[in-house]
Amino acid sequence: MIKLPAAAIWLIACAAFSQTISADRMRADLQFLSSDALEGRLSLRRGSEVAMQWIAAEFAKSGLKPGVGESFLQEFPLLEFRTDRKETCLIIGKRRETVTSQFPDDIDVRGAVVFAGFGITAPEFGYDDYAGLDARGKIALVFDHEPQEDDPRSIFNGTGNTRHAASRVKALNAQRHGAIAVLLANEPNRKHPSNAQRMARVPGSQAGSVRIAPQALADGEIKIPLASISEALAADLLRASGRQPGELQAAIDRSGKPQSMALPDTQVELRVVNEERRRGTAANVIGLLEGSDPELRKETIVFSAHYDHNGTAGSSVFPGADDNGSGTVAVVELARVFAGAAKRPKRSLLFAVFAAEERGLLGSYYYAVHPLRPIETTRAVINFDMIGRNETPSSQTDGLIQIAPDTSNELNLIGTINSPDYREVVEAANRRVGLSLNYKWDRDAALNIFQRSDQFPFTLRNVPAVWWFTGFHPDYHQPSDKVEKINFRKMEKITRLAYLAGEALADGTSVPRFVARP
Question: Residues of CATH 3.40.630.10 domain(s) within the chain?
């Protein structure tokens, strides 16, 4: 018997493996998923239903076990609504001020206003805007983003975001402190575009916000309304304190300490009115490959993506080949490869393709509250969202992030700040793949990247979860995001890296830790 050298065995194994994950198969899948027949896969529309059923069929063919009893579909109720922009307002005395709110219920709340800084309670950073502040039964006025985000020495994450920058987190925190509503204002001393300005950089986004009705979980965690108000209105409300918004932010940034307070003699009424509302049912598509180890199979590694996109506008279809057809077909391909392997990993693998991500991560937020495997023993999440292109300059990123001249072999990993162990596993696996790994988005606060994909709800529950992302390009959310522009060779390498990293996470003797304070 001839004994081959270890290096030769490794090369043969790699050659066999590289034939397992098929770029051609993913191309065929993506040609279907991004075809005009699926009408842009808008949530609660026919195209997204077709995509959902296709994914479930592919999971079944691969040999996965259904994630929900005998079904691959985790159904959940959504509310689709349109806000009456004229009637939704803030009333101060006899004045009516225009505000922006996407709250699915008609509601009218009145109360005193308290200034709660950035609306953050972060014990891991020793910071709490609600310390000593009575917000019960009151309306909380808060700044967007986080303190000190222009300071590399910030008590939070230097020039990057943490979980606490998200407006959803601010609303939940206000709710926990007894507030009845939140007024969100842009931080006055920011050195980046506001969220509205950032969104306006994407061509057609304003028309899209009118065309596509908002959606919300029918029984979501957030029970109080959040309304965005103008900087002028925030300054008007804060005038009762004798201080200006910029002065208050500067004091917080300088000291790293809250400046929260009740605003004397400041009573307002927030009125949210919806002109229409309907109920629908969406579904996450979830399949399970049980682990081989009798004990470790109780633990879970998740591969995730989202299958919805932005529908149609007149005769134009938004095909979403990269966003996020690319991530969807990669999850389906990994399900086939893992299920067809001769040896199963020790820990169980969950393949989850979420609904309604474009409408606010609704499918993944639902799963995080209603997990099909215990969150406490979910050890890592590999989330794909846009893994099919080369990152190139666009109006969205212009002047806000540095993009390398050649990104044809580059993959961004977002969120490893909360799990250096996860990063080490991926980097070790990448020695066999050779992608250029970039972590620049963990140092960004301008584009809110960290909170914009389906890994985020898992991080709120202290699960090591990372977004795998090849970056923005001018075709983002455009009818031109077509399959012909996908870099399938690069996508194959990314999927291969995910296989190796997922296998290492599933078989490792230790599991990655979640580090709340980067």
Answer: 24-79+278-507
> SS3 for 4-68, per residue?
CCHHHHHHHHHHHHHCCCCHHHHHHHHHHHCCHHHHHHECCCHHHHHHHHHHHHHHHHHCCEECE
pLDDT in tens, 356-385: 999 999 999 999 999 999 999 999 999 999
Is residue 303 a contact partner of residue 354, using CB atoms and an 8 Å limit?
A: no
CA–CA separation, 274 vs 280, rounded Å? Answer: 17
* Rounded Cα–Cα distance for residues 225 and 502 (Å): 39
Fold of 85-272: Glucose Oxidase; domain 1 (3.50.30)
How many whole angstroms separate alpha carbon 471 and alpha carbon 468?
Answer: 9
> What is the separation, in whole angstroms, between the first and last Cα of the chain?
53
Homologous superfamily in CATH for domain 24-79+278-507: Zn peptidases (3.40.630.10)
Q: Are 173 and 218 a contacting pair, CB within 8 Å? A: no
d(CA 134, CA 138) in angstroms, rounded, equals 8
Q: Scanning the structure block, which residue is given the tokens 């965690």?
A: 221
The whole-angstrom separation of Cα 197 and Cα 508 is: 44
Determine contact, residues 412/439, Cβ cutoff 8 Å.
yes
Q: What pLDDT band is residue 121 in, cutting at 50, 70 and 90?
A: very high
Which tens digits make up the pLDDT trace of 219-246? 999 999 999 999 999 999 999 999 999 9
User: CA 269 to CA 271: how far, in whole Å?
Assistant: 6
Mean pLDDT of 472-490: 98
C-alpha atoms less than 13 angstroms from C-alpha of 126 in its C-beta half-sphere:
5
Q: What is the pLDDT of residues 253-271, one digit of tens each?
A: 999 999 999 999 999 999 9
**How much is the pLDDT for 7?**
40
Strand order from edge to edge, sheet including 139-143:
95-98, 89-92, 261-272, 107-115, 139-143, 181-185, 226-228, 100-101
Helical pair 23-33 and 327-340, crossing angle rounded to 10 deg: 130
Cα gap 67→62, rounded to integer Å: 14
Question: CATH 3.50.30.30 residue ranges in the chain?
Answer: 85-272
- What does residue 406 show for φ and ψ, rounded to 5 degrees? -125, 110
Question: CA 377 to CA 356: how far, in whole Å?
Answer: 25
Residue 422, pLDDT score = 98
For the record, the structure tokens of 309 come out as 């996109």
Report CA-CA distances (Å) from 348 to 157, 172, 414. 33, 32, 24
Q: Specify the pLDDT at position 518.
A: 86
Beta bridge partners of 142: 184
Tokens matching residue 347: 């820990």
